[in-house]
Amino acid sequence: MDLISYLPFSLPHPALLAAGVLEGTVLAAVLALTALGLSIVFGIMRVVNVAHGEFYMLGAVLAWFITHTVSGTVGGPPWLGFGIALIVAPLVVASMAAATDWLVLKRLDYDPEATIVATIGILYIIQQLALTFYGPDARPVEAPFDFRVQTPWFGYSGYKLSVVGAAILLMLVVWLVLTRTKIGLIMRATQYDRETAQAFGIPVDKVYAGVFALGAGLAAIGAVLIVPIQQAHYLMGGDPLLLSFIVVILGGLGSLRGTLVAAIFIGLSDGIISTLYEPTLAKILATLLVAMVLVFRPQGLFGARAA
Amino acid sequence: MIRSILLHSFVIAALVALEPVLSEYHHGNLARIMVLAVYATGYNLLFGYTGLLSLGHAMFFAAGMYGCALMIRLAEWSVGPAFVVGVICALIAGIVVGFLALRTIGVGFMIVTLMFAEAAYLTILYYNEYTRGDEGFTIAQSVRTIGGLDLSDTTTRYFAALTLFSICLIASAAVVQSKAGRVLVAIRENEDRVRMLGFDPFRYKLLALVLSAVMAGAAGAAYAVLFGYAGASFAAVQYSIFPLLWVLLGGPGTTLGPLLGTVLMFYLVDYASGTIMPGLAGMVETQFGIEAPGLASAYLLLVGVALVLLVLFAPRGLLGTVRARMIPWLP
Fold first, then answer.
1. ipTM of the complex
2. Is the Cβ pair B308, A125 closer than 8 Å?
């Protein structure tokens, strides 16, 4: 990729562009999962979870611990450790999130401003505990399988392509659960009118804890999927948090369809831009765009109305 | 009114009286604390009195710091005029951000300010040719003088910080006890009713935001000239969270809360890093500026725990609780 620096503003080579699009697709897939988690939590609970990126980081760090233990001490193959991590890490993160909801958010009665301050605190707590117990190093996780898909111009990692597939599958499942099942109906009823839902016997407290756990769990799954591509590091939560914010706001706060469209748009452009050009400038423009959208079009660019 | 004047005069007099008795270590700390308390006092005008929670005040602090430090470094201006430039930068930033961000309320305002501050931080990193990015740059001791006084001298530095702090404390007390200050509190309590009474809340909120930004900028510029360093870490999101924490701890909506919160949090972090990780001599430098890679930032754990506990159990902060329980006239 050193070649890029020699051709900064000329048109990129088609193969390079294709690579950028592929990288962008992988990023977009994981970003969509992570942002979906943030969006569901905001949509149903009206809580802006600033600690969302740290749940993502926890997923990655746990994945490292699990794969490391399985391959290191037990001597299992990479796919076994990864498979266990893919199930256990999100579950652990989700239960931590449910505990957070019960210990902190519920006691604040989900007051929007107080919960933001509290989740900022939780962000630092999780991040610094990770620093204390996991350390400052970035550590790699081996991919569960290793094959290359050959295109006419270049080979491409089969693992990355399956990440895209897995993310799409998961999002389909979440969408089906939210729109086609009783659980989804209960969640939407709680979102629509918390008090009436309570009056109809819906255990709102449990729904909230479950929604918060689901949101964090989605971020953790995204992180487990990405960790064979990017290494696990205690500060890795910052970027996905910022990007998820951008996605959720551009897509319209609480609008799931808008979130998906925006995730694909932002993920692809971020992938292409950071493969080809200067990423800092792109981030500056993206954050300013988000601020402007919130100021002038708070319902988002894609969503017609906040759900 | 008399009680309030006496109380503030007493606090300032106590800070003057402390100067000769402090050890060199606490001397340096307190100078730093007073500069940061200026930042917190400005933040309190917006958050504590007007009820607007900004998550992006680091951009105003950084506007003051870089406005001042870059004039010294690149244009070779002297400290006085450069300080004024820093404050003007923060003023302009406050007006621009105010006109845009005050169109939103509640959570929207928090995220818009957060995003503007993030953009400002990234801009500082982007132009690292001039700003030296995260690494930052130092300002030579030889140019840190004003009117023949050497600002790197500990006593001069202490009194310079105290002067700035006193001006901002008195200004803040005067504002919140004026008619405009009453309107700010009324906006915090019920904005619709303020509008119904014929006031324009936007004008008052803009006033609070701009005053707050100017104080933050003055603190940033003062930090640069008194401690001779400017770096991008002062523009990072932590630096927007710190004043929130200090004000929450000391008591939002009390004039002396910001100072109390800054002092307590500073020494709490200082003490914790001293006992948990002894031998880290550079801890205070790490806490407020130069990052040592790896070990040093675990103090943020304390910041996180304090934020959660305060928001859960003491949303009124220390002086807010004192006012509610014991001294109702506390300004």
1. 0.83
2. yes
